[in-house]
Amino acid sequence: MSLMITDECINCDVCEPECPNGAISQGEEIYVIDPNLCTECVGHFDEPQCQQVCPVDCIPLDPGHEESREQLYAKYERIMAVEE
Q1: Residue 6 to residues 11, 25, 29, 43: CA-CA distances in angstroms?
Q2: Who has the most CB within 10 Å: 27, 30, 41, 62?
Q3: Strand 31-33, strand 24-26: pairing
Q4: pLDDT tens-digit series, residues 27-37
């Protein structure tokens, strides 16, 4: 699954620079995660970095975007191929 940011977000700005895929950006009111770019840090780190730094624990799994670890890794490979 990709991750999502809930409305409990306090706009503290710590998650955005931690995302290795650039999936996090400022939305209209709170930060948002692009599910097309979120790999839960698969391919980069053992754990999602945004969840590690979030002071209010407002970044759960997004039930609307279920993906296996293999699918997340395939997405990571596609993202890295585009960046090259």
Answers
A1: 11, 14, 11, 24
A2: 41
A3: antiparallel
A4: 999 999 999 99
The first and second tokens of residue 23, run together, are: 């999936």
CB 2 within 8 A of CB 62: yes
What top-level class would CATH report for the domain 16-83?
alpha beta
Residues 3, 59 contacting (CB under 8 angstroms) = yes
Whole-prediction pTM: 0.92
Cα 65–Cα 71–Cα 30 angle in degrees, nearest 5 = 35
Q: Band of the pLDDT at 82, cuts 50, 70, 90?
A: confident
CA distances from 29 to 5, 13, 26, 53 (A): 11, 13, 8, 20
**How is the chain split into domains, by residue range?**
16-83
The letter for the amino acid at 17 is: P
Tokens of 46: 């053992």
